[in-house]
């Protein structure tokens, strides 16, 4: 099926000026003045973020490796798949391998790129590349200073039930759960796409 082409020129906003409101170690907050497609002007406030990687660690027995971590903005412990922010000049695969080892102590021999998501398009430049990691072997966990989390295994078949029950509400992990379901059912295959850059 041919890909449908769109002319987006009537939707594009043009940046007129940009101001950095806050420049932190994790994110930057910007306030821009833009020209709208109809010629009027508006203000756009958003965060810039270097991007991140999420890993779906899948064991041969059909279990998946999960994490439980306190997330300060929500003031609660969240269940999620391993993930982390890209370091400067770090590629997605290297980031996934680093984060998996640091957070869980596991290494994977097989890595398959799945997709890129944009979790909060209304106010952030953040993207998350999702990788499937298999052929896992346990090593030593290397948590960052000030990082505290628990790691546990669960049957991949139960992951969607946790999403349905509201036990997992983290959007990247929900998307990962749906990808994993499609892969395990044979509907989708990894390696159909290559990482974006």
Automatic annotation (TrEMBL):
Entry's Gene Ontology BP terms: nucleoside phosphate metabolic process; ribose phosphate metabolic process
Cofactor(s) listed in the protein's UniProt record: Mg(2+)
Keyword set includes Hydrolase: yes
GO molecular function (one): hydrolase activity
Keyword Chloroplast: no
Record Gene3D superfamilies: Nucleoside Triphosphate Pyrophosphohydrolase
GO cellular component, one term: cytosol
SUPFAM superfamilies for this protein: Nudix (SSF55811)
Catalysed transformations (reactions): GDP-alpha-D-mannose + H2O = alpha-D-mannose 1-phosphate + GMP + 2 H(+)
Superkingdom field: Bacteria
Entry's family note: Belongs to the Nudix hydrolase family. NudK subfamily.
Name of the protein: GDP-mannose pyrophosphatase
Organism: Pandoraea terrigena
Upper taxonomic lineage: Bacteria, Pseudomonadati, Pseudomonadota, Betaproteobacteria, Burkholderiales
């Amino acid at each position: 099926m041919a890909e449908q082409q769109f002319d987006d020129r009537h939707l594009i906003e043009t940046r007129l000026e940009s101001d950095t409101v806050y420049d932190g170690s994790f994110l930057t907050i910007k306030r821009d003045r833009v020209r709208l497609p109809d010629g009027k002007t508006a203000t756009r406030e958003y965060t810039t973020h270097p991007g991140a990687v999420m890993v779906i660690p899948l064991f041969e027995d059909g279990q998946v490796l999960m994490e439980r971590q306190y997330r300060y903005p929500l003031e609660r412990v969240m269940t999620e798949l391993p993930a982390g922010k890209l370091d400067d000049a770090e590629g997605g695969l290297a980031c996934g391998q680093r984060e998996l080892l640091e957070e869980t102590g596991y290494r994977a021999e097989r890595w398959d790129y799945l997709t890129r998501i944009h979790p909060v398009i209304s106010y952030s430049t953040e993207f998350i590349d999702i990788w499937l990691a298999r052929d896992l072997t346990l090593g030593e966990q290397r948590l960052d200073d000030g990082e505290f989390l628990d790691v546990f295994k669960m049957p991949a078949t139960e992951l969607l039930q946790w999403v349905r029950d509201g036990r997992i509400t983290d959007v990247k992990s929900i998307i990962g759960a749906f990808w994993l379901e499609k892969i395990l059912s044979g509907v989708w295959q990894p390696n159909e796409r290559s990482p974006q850059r």
